[in-house]
Design a protein that fits this description.
55% of the residues lie in helices and 17% in strands. It is of the alpha/beta class and 149 residues long.
Length: 149
Amino acid sequence: MKIFLAGSVSSATDDQVAKYEIYNKVILSSFPKVTLVTPDDIYNFRNSCITKNSNFSKLQIDKIMVDYDLCQVRESDLVICDISEQSSGMGLELGICKENNIKTIFCLQKGSYVSSMIYGAFNESIFIEYENMEELGTKLANAIEKTKS
C-alpha cells in the first residue's frame, strides 16, 4: 500500500510543518509496511536533482519535481491532505486524486478556510476538523481505520 501525504510546505510555518510528525506517526502505526510519501520526500527529490545536475535551470528542476510528485500521487492508494493552508500544488494533486478515484482523507484545523470546490468534488471523502495536535492524531487514526474496510 502507498499513502501520499499532501499539504502546504513552502508557505507553512514551523508549527504547521511540525504537525507532519503527527501524521507520520499515526499513518505508520496504522500501516507499518506502508510506503509513505511526504512533502519532505518531494523536496528531497528536488534537491537531489539539483545536486546531481547543476546545469538544470530552475524551470527544468521544477518540472522534474512536479512530474515526480504527480506520479507519486497517481500510484497512491490513499491520499491524506492537510487543507488548513491553501496550496496551488495540492490543488494539482487533488485533481489527480479526483481523476483516478483515489481515496482521500482531508484534515483541517478549526477555523481554516476551505473552498466549496473541495467539499463538492470530494463529497464521499472523510473530512476531519481538529483543534489541536492530540485531537488530530485521534481523529486521523479513526479515519484511517475506516478506510481499511
